[in-house]
Write a structure and sequence with these properties.
The chain is α/β, with parallel strands linked by helices. Helix content is 29%, strand content 23%. It contains six helices and ten strands, in the order E-E-E-H-H-E-H-E-E-H-E-H-E-H-E-E. The strands form two sheets. A six-stranded mixed beta sheet has the order 5-4-6-7-10-9, with helices on both faces. The chain has a four-stranded antiparallel beta sheet with strand order 1-2-3-8, with no helix packed on it. Helix 2 crosses helix 3. The longest helix is centred in the first third of the chain and has 17 residues. The chain is globular. The relative contact order is 0.17. Keywords: Methyltransferase, Transferase. It is an enzyme of class 2 (transferase). InterPro entries: SAM-dependent_MTases_sf. It comes from Aeromonas allosaccharophila.
C-alpha cells in the first residue's frame, strides 16, 4: 500500500508502512530504503548518550580491523599524500589515525565530537563514513553535501549494513540499536549513484564505494 510519506533519500512518495516492535518504519518502493518515522526518533541528548557509551579506541586492533573494510578501499584506490575526510569520526577517531599513519592528509568531522563546519567546505580526494549513515535522518542532504566536497575522480566510501527483505528486517539485530534510523538496500545506493552519474561498487557486504566522474 502506498503512502504520502516522502523518502528521505530519493524523495519518492511511493512507500509502504513496515511496523516492527511498536515502531513505525517505512519502506520506499523506488529505492528500497527503510527509515524510522520521525516520531520514534530519540532526542539529541539521548542519542549522544548512546554514542558516549561506545568503546571505540584509536589503538584498539579489533576496531582497526573492522575499519579496514572501508579504509582498505582507500588504500587500493587513492595514493598518499591525498587529502581525506572521515565523516562521523566519533570520540575515538581511529580511521583518521590510520589515514595519517599511511601518509594521507586526514581530517575528521563529527557533529558531536569534532564539530568543525569549516571541514565541510573543503575539497577532498576521498571521504570515508563508517557506521554513520544509518544514524542520519536526512541522508540525501548529508550525502549531497559530502559529494560536493569530493574532487572529480574522488571516492566516497560508505560502510553500513544493508537491509534485505522485509522479513529479515523484522528480525534483524542491526535494527535494535535505537540510534539506527535509516537502512540502505543495494538498490538505495544504485539509485543514489545513478542520480550522480557515478560508478558504484560493492567490495564487501557492508561497504559501498561511489566514484565521482
Amino acid at each position: 500500500m502506498s503512502s504520502t510519506v516522502c523518502c528521505p533519500l530519493c524523495a519518492s512518495h511511493r512507500s509502504y508502512p513496515l511496523p516492527v516492535a511498536g515502531k513505525r518504519y517505512h519502506r520506499c518502493l523506488a529505492c528500497e530504503l527503510v527509515w524510522l518515522d520521525e516520531a520514534d526518533h530519540l532526542d539529541e541528548a539521548a542519542e549522544k548518550a548512546v554514542y558516549d557509551g561506545h568503546d571505540n579506541r584509536v589503538d584498539d586492533p579489533r576496531y582497526r580491523t573492522f575499519l579496514m573494510r572501508a579504509f582498505g578501499e582507500v588504500l587500493s584506490r587513492v595514493a598518499p599524500p591525498a587529502r581525506g575526510l572521515d565523516f562521523g569520526c566519533g570520540p575515538g577517531p581511529a580511521l583518521v589515525a590510520m589515514g595519517r599513519e599511511a601518509g594521507y592528509q586526514m581530517a575528521g568531522y563529527d557533529k558531536f565530537y569534532a564539530n568543525d563546519p569549516e571541514l565541510l567546505t573543503r575539497q577532498y580526494d576521498f571521504i570515508t563514513s563508517t557506521e554513520v549513515i544509518e544514524h542520519i535522518a536526512e541522508p540525501r542532504a548529508v550525502l549531497e553535501q559530502l559529494w560536493a566536497c569530493l574532487k572529480p575522480g574522488g571516492v566516497l566510501v560508505l560502510q553500513t549494513q544493508r537491509v534485505l527483505s522485509d522479513e529479515r528486517f523484522k528480525n534483524w539485530r542491526y535494527r535494535h540499536d535505537p540510534t539506527h534510523i535509516v537502512f540502505f538496500a543495494e538498490a538505495s545506493f544504485q539509485v543514489l549513484a545513478a542520480s550522480w552519474q557515478a560508478e558504484l561498487s560493492f567490495p564487501h557486504a557492508d561497504v559501498a564505494v561511489i566514484t565521482k566522474p
